[in-house]
Every structure is written in structure tokens, then in C-alpha cells.
Amino acid sequence: MPTSEEKWTWQCDQKIPNNAVAGRRLLDDVLRRLECLHWNRSDIFGVHLAVDEALVNAIAHGNGSDASKHVQFSCRISPRKIRVEITDEGSGFDPDALPDPTTPDRLECPSGRGVMLMRAFMSRVEFQERGNHVVLEKSRSS
Amino acid sequence: MTTAYRHVDLSQVGDVTVVRFRDDKIIEDINIQELGQELFRLVEADGCEQLLLDFSSVDFLSSAALGKLITLDKKMKAHGGTLKLSNIRPEIYEVFAITKLNRLFDIRKDEAEALAAF
Description:
Strand order of the largest sheet of chain B: 1-2-4-6-7
Oligomer: heterodimer
Radius of gyration of chain A: 15 Å
CATH superfamily of chain B: STAS domain
Number of strands of chain A: 5
Strand content of chain B: 15-25%
Largest sheet of chain A: 5 strands, antiparallel
Structural class of chain A: alpha+beta
Order of helices and strands of chain B: EEEHEEHEHEH
CATH superfamily of chain A: Histidine kinase-like ATPase, C-terminal domain
Helix content of chain B: 25-40%
CATH architecture of chain A: 2-Layer Sandwich
Radius of gyration of chain B: 13 Å
Low-confidence stretches of chain B: none
Shape of chain A: globular
Low-confidence stretches of chain A: none
Number of helices of chain B: 4
Mean pLDDT of chain A: 93
Number of domains of chain A: 1
Number of domains of chain B: 1
Shape of chain B: globular
Mean pLDDT of chain B: 94
Structural class of chain B: alpha/beta
CATH class of chain A: Alpha Beta
Distance between the termini of chain A: 20 Å
Number of strands of chain B: 7
Order of helices and strands of chain A: EHHEEHEE
CATH architecture of chain B: 2-Layer Sandwich
Distance between the termini of chain B: 21 Å
CATH class of chain B: Alpha Beta
Number of helices of chain A: 3
């Protein structure tokens, strides 16, 4: 992972209250920057979907919708990729233990697709520490 | 259908109730909950047996919104009804394909094709 070689041209690091409004305000700012940098619509859609799912996971599942908790949100944008890191204060989880939501017996279950979509739309998704810290990276396709 | 709907516009084409979404982004939890209640009401209170969800105005939806559509599909089947989806933009169709929900839902290219398939 060429972390040190990446030329980040924009970055933000913020500790936000544990609510969706605060998270989406930051995400909207990130998406606007990608638009200004002329990232294509499909890439922006993927970032939007994956980061939104990760924020919901952190706020609702990781922090259990506890208003006293916080979420750490970091974002880096370079000419060729975006990296978002989200950390909650929860006890974490094992992403490998999640059931496959696409099996016939689970297809009609209304939940359980967030992590799968994150992995599908991003170039790299890595859960670190005890599972309460996720790194999402997407390489620009054009 | 006397109760107001905040998140959808409805029209009737023969026996088919066509549902168009007012929100271009189906993302906020409160809106998803309300949207779900409105869709469920169509089946459970209004007795709609043939529903077509037209996604032409929808630019984005989250996995929580998918959950509501899955529950709607279950309710439709329980009431002996038929549900179809149409006009889904490519990025959103990809969401259905990745999650294999394109196998659960009858997804049609446009409204005309969907109406002809009821």
C-alpha cells in the first residue's frame, strides 16, 4: 500500500457527534469535492454508497445510536484515489463472521447488505483494530 | 386512498398502481421509515394488488431502503399481489445485482414494459 507515496491534495480529520446528520454533512462535503475534481458519476455513487453504509454501521451498530459517543472521520483525496477512515467507540465485530446475504435462505432478510456493498463499490475495504475501525479506498477509474 | 402520501406520487393505469418516488435520494433513516409505512399502507390498507415502483427520479438509495423493498415484496406476496420495479438507473441496478436482489424482484427496463408484464 503506497501510503507514503500518495500525494494527498485534500484532507480532513474530524470527531463528529454520533448522529447521521453530522456524518452526512461531512460526506456531502467530500462528494462535492469529488464533483469539483471531475470524478465520474459512477465513482462518486460508489463512494457515496460505501461511506454512507460505513457511517450507518459506526453510528447505529458500533456506537449503538448512543448520543454520548463519537465517530472519528478522516478523509484523504489525491488525484488518483480517495481514502476514508471511520472509527467508532463500540466493541467491534468480526466482518468475516457476517452471513452471506445473497444465499437463497437469506435473500429475503431485510438487513445485512451494508458491508457487502462497501466491498463491491470500493477498491479496498479493511476492518482494523477490533473491527471498530474501517478503511475504505477507491481508485479513480477515469 | 384518502390518506396523504408524503414520499410518493400515485397514479392508476388499469389495475396497476404506479408509484413514483418524490425523493431523489432515499437515504435518511426517518424518510426510509416513512416511505416504508406508505408503501406498506398501499398493500395492507388500500388493498393494491398490482404495484409498479418507478425509480426514474431516484439517484441514490441505501441498503436500509432495500430492506423496505424486501419487506414490501413479502407483504405483496402474502396478499397475493404482484410487485414490479422499473426505470432503475445503472448504478442502482448494480446494487440490486451485487446483492442478487435482481433475482427476488421483477425488474423491467421501463414503465411500458413493466405494465405489459402484469
